[in-house]
Design a protein that fits this description.
The chain is α/β, with parallel strands linked by helices and 412 residues long. Helices cover 29% and strands 23% of the residues. The chain has eleven helices and 18 strands. The protein has helices spanning 38-55, 69-77, 88-96, 111-123, 136-145, 172-182, 204-223, 242-249, 272-283, 285-289, 386-389; strands at residues 33-37, 58-59, 83-85, 101-107, 128-133, 154-160, 189-196, 233-236, 257-260, 300-311, 314-317, 332-337, 345-346, 353-357, 362-365, 377-381, 394-398, 404-409. The strands form two sheets. Strands 1, 10, 11, 12, 13, 14, 15, 16, 17 and 18 form a ten-stranded mixed beta sheet that branches. Helix 5 (136-145) packs parallel to helix 6 and helix 7 (204-223) packs parallel to helix 8.
């Protein structure tokens, strides 16, 4: 087959390079488009900075949420200690963008993946990298690999898991076996702390028990002098229970670096994380205290045209599963705009609801007396930001006048 040159086009952009003249209300942008509201983004960054400062903990937000180095650097600017990632590819992206402290909240498996990390560590003495261990087999693999051509030990965190959960050791017998294996590789592996991901559980009581078990494990390791780093690391927290993690982790008696890893606070949502925030404000005094000016705000939206109104109470919107998350609830309409209006109007998401999504179409149920028209624009808040971010290579950062002020690149 003969190769040919294909121009790379990205959805959700305007025409030409002068993006700071693009305005959503002037229809300067090819829709559907993914946008981030700059004011809400800044508010969320400040809110989380207050939270970690009040608890005197550190933050390594999960970069897999956005995979946007521009947003990584914003998070670091607002006090993040480092960035969390999930895969070696993601580590490469972040490192190439200047991120020099990374927790890979996952096991490092496979020869090529190990080679990539080894080369980064050997080439840059300032690169501060951590990964997880949860089995003697993986410890042996890492120990043998990093025992050759390695200038400094690989820093590892012991992962705690739960029965029927994801990764992580299940009990103290597994812990003892793993530590015995680890002791064979003092020159290639350094145990520096303990890690968990509580998001595999849904009930607060079971989450608190898992957290307490993790704290107890770290305390055992401290008491037995099995940790290389001082202070050792104690890390956990997705985006739904980070307040509970902070409460339980800060009960430890020994000096440790407590590192939370929430990522979705950055753009928040109107679904699962909104419900988690309601619970947090009801239960957590610090969250209440820092929310006097408001709580986390949804910042990520999808803007799209109404392209058909085939039935009285149904409109078809020009976006779909290729554009927005649908695993944790459908997008919720928030604004309605028609050419010539001075500004968008609020729309009632209880009355106007997405009920089905296909690849490029969303089905909006409307009241019979709706005032929608073909060619109108609707803006939608979303649930589960991670699975909206990953559908876009370019995301527009907009101001309160709906003018583009920057284009954010993603690298999924």
């Amino acid at each position: 087959m003969q190769s040919q040159s294909i121009v790379s086009y990205h959805k959700g952009l305007g025409i030409g390079d002068n993006y700071q003249q693009w305005n959503l209300l002037h229809e300067d942008v090819n829709l559907p488009a993914a946008v981030i509201l700059s004011e809400n983004l800044e508010f969320n960054l400040q809110w989380m900075q207050k939270f970690i400062n009040k608890y005197q903990v550190k933050l390594a937000p999960h970069g897999k949420t956005s995979m946007s180095p521009q947003l990584f650097h914003k998070q670091l600017h607002y006090g993040a200690w480092g960035i969390t990632l999930a895969t070696v590819h993601q580590v490469q992206v972040a490192y190439s963008a200047g991120i020099r402290r990374i927790i890979m909240a996952n096991q490092l498996i496979g020869k090529t993946n190990m080679k990539i990390i080894q080369q980064l560590l050997n080439d840059d003495s300032d690169f501060d990298f951590y990964c997880l261990i949860d089995s003697s087999t993986n410890v042996e693999q890492l120990g043998e690999f990093f025992n050759v051509n390695q200038q400094r030990p690989l820093q590892v965190l012991l992962e705690i898991g739960v029965q029927n959960g994801r990764t992580g050791i299940r009990n103290e017998d597994e812990e003892k076996l793993l530590l015995q294996t680890l002791s064979k590789y003092p020159n290639s592996l350094s145990l520096v702390g303990v890690e968990l991901f509580e998001g595999v559980l849904n009930e607060e009581q079971s989450i608190r028990m898992m957290l307490q078990r993790t704290v107890a494990c770290l305390q055992r390791l401290i008491n037995s002098n099995q940790l290389i780093r001082s202070p050792p690391i104690l890390t956990g927290a997705g985006s739904a229970w980070f307040d509970v993690v902070a409460e339980e982790f800060t009960k430890i008696d020994s000096p440790v670096d407590i590192i939370l890893r929430s990522g979705c606070y950055l753009t928040h949502d109107t679904g699962a994380y909104h419900r988690a925030q309601i619970r947090m404000l009801e239960q957590n005094s610090i969250a209440k205290e820092i929310s006097s000016d408001g709580t986390l705000r949804p910042a990520l939206q999808i803007w799209a045209y109404i392209q058909s109104i085939p039935e009285t109470n149904r409109a078809i919107i020009g976006f779909g599963k290729r554009d927005a998350a649908f695993d944790a609830g459908f997008p919720m309409p928030i604004l309605h705009y028609r050419a010539g209006w001075s500004k968008p109007m609020d729309i009632d998401s209880n009355t106007y609801q997405i009920t089905q999504m296909m690849d490029q179409h969303a089905f909006l149920t409307c009241p019979n007396d709706h005032k929608l028209a073909i060619g109108d624009i609707l803006a939608f808040n979303i649930s589960h930001p991670c699975l909206t971010f990953d559908k876009w290579r370019k995301i527009l950062l907009i101001n309160k006048d709906y003018t583009v002020i920057d284009i954010l690149d993603t690298f999924f």
